[in-house]
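Bench log. Compound arrived from synthesis this morning; before running ITC I wanted a structural hypothesis for how adenine sits in the protein. Inputs:
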Amino acid sequence: MKIDIVSIFPEYLAPLNLSLVGKAISDGVIDLNVHDLRSVTSDKHQTVDDSPYGGGPGMVMKAEPWGDLLDQLVTQDSVLVVPTPSGQHFTQTMSAELANESHLIFACGRYEGIDSRVMQHFASRIKVREVSIGDYVLAGGEAAVLVIVEALARLIPGVLGNSESAVDDSFAEGEMANLLEGQVYTKPPVWRDLEVPEVLRGGNHAAIAAWRRASAQARTAQYRPDLLSDSE
Ligand code: ADE
C-alpha cells in the first residue's frame, strides 16, 4: 500500500517510523511519504491560511496550496482521507475498508480546517472521506492520522505476525463481534495475591472460550452497554 501524508508539521508524523508501522515500511509492505504543504507556496511567508469568508474566529487553510500539492499526488486509484471533527466516525469497519485501498492520501488540516472547495473538487476526481476519530477537537489532523494509519496498518495482510492476530480484537468481526475484548493474563499464576482464573490455567478449550465470552460481555456491559444486543 502507498500512503502519502500532507502536513505543515511533517516532523509530527515521525513516530510512524517506529514499531508496527515502521516495520511494515522497512519490510516494503507500506510505502509511506510525508510532504510539507509549505513546499508548494511561493510567497516569502509561505502562506497556507487566510481569514474565513463570512467572518468569525480563526483561519482557514487556502485551497491553492492544497490543490497544487494534491495534484502532484493524486492518481485514479487514490483515496483522499481528510481528518476533521466534522467527519464520519472512524470505526474498525472503516479501518478495514481503508486497509483494502492501494493508495491513501491524508490531508492534515490545521486551524479551522481546509477550504471546502478542496474536498469538493477532488471528490469529482477520486474517493474522498472526511473522518473523525472521536467527539473532541484536536489542534490538527496529524494526531488523527497517527491513529488511523496505525489502526489500518495492522489489518494489511503480512503486517501482523502469526503470533499476533487481529481476529480477537475488540470490534473485530466474527464470534466476538460487537464485544470489547475481555481480561487477559500471563505468567506468573499468582501476583500480589491475585490469581489468574483457574479455568484459563486448564486445558478445557470449550470452558476457556465460554470464560472469554463472559469476560468480554462483562466488560462491554461496564463500558459500552450500547454495544450489547438483547441476547447478550
Ligand atoms: N482534527 C481535529 N479534531 C479531529 C478529530 N476529532 N478527528 C479527526 N481529525 C480531527
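What the model suggests: Strands lie at 2-7, 31-36, 49-50, 60-61, 78-89, 103-107, 127-132, 190-191, 194-195. The longest helix spans residues 205-223.
ITC booked for Thursday regardless.
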